[in-house]
Amino acid sequence: MGQVVVETTDLTKNYGGFTAVDKLNLRIEEGEIYGFLGPNGAGKTTTILMLLGLTEPSSGTVQVCGHIPTRDPIKVKRLVGYLPERVGFYEDLTAVQNLKYTAELNRLPRGEAEEKIAALLATVGLSQVADQQVNTFSRGMKQRLGIADILIKEPNLAFLDEPTVGIDPKGIDDILNIITNMARKGITIIFCSHQLPQVQKICTRVGIFAKGHLIVEGPVKLLEKQAPEEGQYRIEVQVAEPVPKLAELIKGIKGVTDISGPPELLLITCSADLRPQISRTVVDSGSSLIGMKIEEYSLEKIYKEYFHED
Amino acid sequence: MYAVFRKELADHFNSKRFIILFALAFLAAMFAIYIATQSIRGEVTASTEFIFLKIFTLSGKTLPSFLFFMSLFIPIIGIALGFDSISSEYSSGNLSRLLSQPIYRDAVINGKFLSGLTVLAIIIVSVIAIVAGLGLRTIGVPPTSEEVLRLVVFALISIAYGAFWMALAVLFSILSRKASTSMLSSIGLWIFFFFFMSMIAGAIANAQVPLDSNSTIEMITHNAEISGTIGRFSPCTLYGEAVAALLVPELASLNPALMMISTVSAGRMLTPLPFSQSLLLVWPQLVSIVALAAICFAISYIRFMREEIRSI
Lengths: 310, 312
Ligand SMILES: Nc1ncnc2c1ncn2[C@@H]1O[C@H](COP(=O)(O)OP(=O)(O)OP(=O)(O)O)[C@@H](O)[C@H]1O
Ligand SMILES: [Mg+2]
Hints:
The complex is a heterodimer. Chain A is α/β, with parallel strands linked by helices.
């Protein structure tokens, strides 16, 4: 059992009569990558702001790294990095100058800061543009710079509020990799997103938020098993020269519940991992099998269920 | 706080805005010198005291004096330095990142304000120095120590006056979060005080004490008193009165009624007040300007400390 890094009890935030976060009880331990998953307006950002002490909770208590954020803001902010939802930089300054400022605010000695900045820009893949003004940066480049900006203070805990929004698939993979590496170095991470696959990919634990409530919480693996129905799988099968009745043949396999898509790219839904049976059927039918991909699909189901609740 | 201050100051010096403001102020200084040297010969007699100060106060036949330029430019400089100080941080999405660094929240607003104040002071002091230096060369009369003292206080009041406009602009930049709105509001307020306040004051005074060709002197002074009192609600008037009393030592009173009489009886040679008396005369104005600046800053400060910072 690791040390508790974030702990809230009955944390609540009201805006006028509207409750954005309702009696939230969270407990996050050192080294976790915790996913905040939820639709727009669920209260994810509000929760983070309260954890950072940038917003006063209406009631309930917060402890971050052993401190109360509204009482000891400086101590908390020294240990915590925050990548805001739409991170911004001083547009007229270069990437390096922006990071230098952050380093200075964190009282890093100048020489040390310069070395570190160069190394971090390499980590996030921005070495080429280190001395370009930020106003020439694309959305994804700013997002990467934001991650470097967090890493410079060597936090114990990092809040990443939707770090992958507006980034191309390759960029997303890069960023998710950087995040996993951060976690490996011992940084506890809270990762906010409404992209289930990303959360599934990197998080050790997820909490699903809706309307200010934490609906379900648990390790990703466990949640998948907890699915209302038995675990379901979706298998994508890519076929060359399909024989006409291939779809029917596959449908005949026991356990297959649904099949869709064009004959060259079949999407098969089934209740178990039926890849061996399916590949045999394809080959036996005289078609050639090019590839197969399996997607676990039960967490998505939970997620969707809660999202479509209203 | 020091880090914020230094960064903001560096930003100011690197910005085009600073260059433009400085150029503007420099032009005003040149213009003032030109006007003063044109008209100073006609004004000065052997017995004239405070010749050096005349450089700052003389106006041409159709052209305004350096003082007028200052009263015009200082608010503009103040507003230009403050109007987007906070709103630009909001709109660029910088603020929440900045505030998640281990600094106190007031360090941000204090650092910004102080750096603005420093720039303001640099501009004002250098403009006065330029005018004084060039004036010295063209008229060849060195300033007396009293004149220097008066100029120093003049610079301080000007800085306080600029600080007021800057604090106002900072306040608007917190309230509106949009640079354009905040600039328009500050400039609107300035236009109101600068141009309309005296008209309104005059209109109210005339409604209270209507004047016509056979009004008595009491009525005229009463009328002037009313419009003067209302006019004092405008920081522009306060500044105008303060610098007039400082740089025109002959001005014996800021009472609007008495001032009117003295203009009526122009031609009579007035004896200049000693520095301490002039200072006493402008003390209320000076305190009011500083207080106004402090109030604006305090409101900004409180608003900013309570603001919820979201990046959207
Ligand atoms: N200052 C405010 N005043 C009133 N309501 C607010 C304020 N800030 C946020 N809210 C409300 O609080 C709710 C939660 O907002 P929050 O930003 O935490 O959602 P989120 O989970 O981060 O959503 P998203 O996925 O869109 O980022 C929203 O319904 C929003 O309308
Ligand atoms: Mg959000």
